[in-house]
Write a structure and sequence with these properties.
Length: 113
């Protein structure tokens, strides 16, 4: 998948087109992501136990990953991503990172920087 948990994304298709939000959960086996405050649905919940109440709960539903586009932290635009391999320091020989195809800047920051 071209997005990860914690990425800011723009919804490019569907009823929430144009909405921005952070990815709270990624479901790679289903090719879906959950974006905060986007694709809100109402779910009827049955009470479980004595403390939890039942009722109608509003929650986020998953979106297909093809309907979101990552927002580059460098240029602030929604753009496509690519992968490149960077030379490592001493411990790691190579490192695969995502980059923005609009500004050619790295999206993934090095972990030790």
């Amino acid at each position: 998948m071209h997005v990860k948990t914690g990425d800011e994304v723009l919804v490019i298709a569907g009823k929430n087109k144009g909405s921005r939000g952070k990815i709270t959960r990624a479901l790679p086996t289903e090719n879906r992501v959950v974006v905060e405050n986007v694709n809100m649905v109402k779910k009827h919940m049955k009470p479980r136990g004595q403390r939890q109440r039942g009722g109608i709960v509003e929650m986020e539903a998953p979106l297909h990953v093809s309907n979101v586009m990552i927002v580059c932290p460098n240029c602030g635009k929604a753009s496509r991503t690519g992968h490149r391999i960077l030379d490592g320091d001493g411990k790691i020989s190579h490192r695969k990172v995502r980059y923005c195809k609009a500004c050619d800047g790295n999206i993934d920051q090095p972990k030790n920087a």
